[in-house]
Amino acid sequence: MSDTDMPRLLEPGKRDGRDPNALSFREARPASICEVASWPDRLEAVANELSKSCGVNLPKGPGGFTAGGGKRLCWLAFGRFLVISEDATTTAALKERISTDDGSVVDLGHARYGVRIEGEKAAAVLNKAVAIDLDIAAFPAGALAQAPIHHIPVLIMRLDDARFDVFAPSSLAQAFVDWLEDAAQEFGYHIGAPGGLS
User: Fold this and answer.
1) What is the structure's pLDDT at 7?
2) In degrees to the nearest 10, what's the CA dihedral of 86, 171, 149, 25?
3) What pTM did the predictor assign?
4) Among the four residues 4, 10, 128, 143, which has the most C-beta atoms within 10 Å?
């Protein structure tokens, strides 16, 4: 998707709070996002095709993601996957490769708004609303969780010790950004230019 396709809710260059260098936020704008669901008896076929098409191994199970080659393969729940990609053709390619006899592919590119949260206090700011232990020992790199933030259903992905990507429904993105900036006041933050998955 292009920059003109999605609203710009985070204002690049903005600095606020006690220490503006404590946290950084930026819009995370992959080129495509799709949800893939397998029919109950076709999970193995769909999972194998996803791994092959994305060029990455499957996560060990629900609640994790793997990444490589500009793609993330996320296992959300039994029979439900999310593919986030820097390649704008990924969703269309998966629609061709996954038979409707095996499952379905739904384009979510315009339905999700991503934010990269980075800094030593990244987990702390999320834990103001998320009742999940985000300590690195309990929620390591490659872990994901679906949780409500300020009554907004979001997907939280841990990239490493100090970086998370959070995807919210586009229709509720403004409410999520408002919450995030307010929650981060205690620590301070600055906003960078939009970017992709790297």
Assistant:
1) 53
2) 50
3) 0.93
4) 10
